[in-house]
Amino acid sequence: MQNKPLSKAEVLAHLKIAQEKDEKYESGKIFCSMCTKPLSLAKKAHKLFLESNLGDKALFLGSNQLEKEVVAALAELLHCKNAVGFIVTGGTEANLMAMLVARDQANKEAPEVILPESAHFSFHKICRLLKLKPVFARLDPTFRVDVEHVKQLITKNTIALVGTAGSAELGTVDPIDKLSNIATNFGLHLHVDAAFGGLVLPFLDYTDNFETDFDFKLEGVQSITVDPHKMGMSTIPAGGILFRSSSFLRYLKTETPYLTDQAQYTFVGTRSAASVAATWATFQLLGREGFQKTVKKCMKLTMFLASKLEETGFEVLLRPSLNIVAFRGANSKLLTDKLREMGWFVSYVPRLDCVRVVIMPHSNRQHVKEFLQCIKKLHKPNLQQKL
Ligand code: PLP
Predict the structure, then answer these.
(1) Residue 312: CB partners within 8 Å, gap ≥ 6?
(2) How many structural domains does the chain have?
């Protein structure tokens, strides 16, 4: 910290410079992010609640009520009105809470969790933190977890199965119905990581897409991650964790003797209510119809991009089930780097040697067309050799 204070104008000038260096969603060049530009009402709501701390709930009763209503809305959407949960910092914290509950409930000496090979990398952190042994189940040719392999991997030490509803790499949805049957038969906790897909799948138009149950409708599903700061178009940080029943909360409870509230259940203590208010505002403003409209727009663009890439000669790995397109060129890593040099942000997925494009609500048809024009140039035979 410098000795002399700066003036407000100087501070703001510095902040403006820093802010200008940040990429902007509205440029249309961000195709690698699972977050998006929040609705302007969400930003207004966020600002209104900047001082509210959900870690000290009795002081902030209004914020507390908003969190309850957001959780209730998610619970209804995911078919379990009695589900309980919290708005946390993101999918990582949500998955962590689910794994903590599963581990402590099972209470085994050398706990193992069975994950699809495509599980989000947050589970690597979580397994390290919770001293869980990750056991990876292979994927089938459609890039969804092979349920027969999951069954084979169950041992006396297994404490949970994880399925993904909208994988970060490809947007694939594991056969959660089959995982649910296995979990029920073996008495295991099934956690569904729907951080991305949880606010897409309920709004898909099933005339265009396959229909699959992934939520509490399935009796084996005990907890679900669903993040408003991804396809929920809310502000960061807004992850969501839901548990089928309040009986799970005892594994999360920490007494907080000198606060206004008796206990906390989240890892984060002091917790902003700002993104909770933003999520509440987004849900109210959009309703199911608004989400359906947004999801429809994203899926239409996704399919448009996938078909044009195929026409151009790229190999599209799979028919998108969510708003993610994965494709291969002659050298996908180099293609990703070239696109980056030209200002486009896409991801390279080493595990699958492919390029990944996420079509979020901030993208429109014009952006996709410009992207296609650029990628076509890179795919011209003479350049293709270099790639
Ligand atoms: N799970 C899935 C499927 C994700 O796509 C992500 C992030 O992209 C996460 C978990 C982690 O979420 P966060 O980055 O909000 O912690």
Answers:
(1) 372, 375, 376, 379
(2) 2
